[in-house]
Design brief:
It is elongated and about 80 Å long. Helices cover 42% and strands 8% of the residues. The strands form 2 sheets. Strands 1-4 form a two-stranded antiparallel ribbon. Strands 2-3 form a two-stranded antiparallel ribbon. It has one domain (17-110): 434 Repressor (Amino-terminal Domain). The protein has 5 helices and 4 strands; from the N terminus they run ααααββββα. The chain is mainly α and 126 residues long. α2 (33-40) crosses α5. The relative contact order is 0.15.
């Protein structure tokens, strides 16, 4: 039987509220998932899983990568009743074309294509 974790001050039923907050960022910036991928390097399948799929609790590191890549920082608010309202705040204005170019250069530098290993000849084979 699956264990259910309940938090008095951070409650949600369907999906973690952070997903809605990130979706708001993407919509406010008028970006498609493919453009977010080009800027941040986060796979479009990950974004589709958050916004339209079955992902309920995304990894914090991935959320941070998307938000910071789009120029946002986390700014949650503690409401008078003690619950947390998840949110982001625009920290810097970015040129999306320039950011996509930076991401491409980063990927080429740190994720070079692997060289194929030469197949070893079997004994007796020419």
């Amino acid at each position: 039987m699956a264990r259910v974790h309940l938090y008095r001050t951070y409650r949600w039923i369907d999906k973690d509220p952070i997903i809605g907050a990130v979706k708001t960022i993407v919509q406010d910036e008028k970006l498609k998932n493919n453009a977010v991928h080009e800027i941040t390097g986060i796979a479009t399948a990950t974004l589709d899983g958050w916004f339209n799929g079955g992902t309920r609790k995304p990894q914090n590191v991935t959320v941070t990568a998307v938000a910071s890549g789009l120029g946002y920082v986390r700014r949650d608010r503690l409401l008078p009743d003690g619950t947390v309202e998840v949110g982001f705040e625009k920290a810097r204005k970015l040129d999306w074309k320039e950011e996509a170019e930076k991401q491409t250069k980063f990927m080429l530098k740190y994720n070079p294509k692997k060289k194929r290993k030469a197949k070893r000849k079997k004994n007796g084979a020419g």
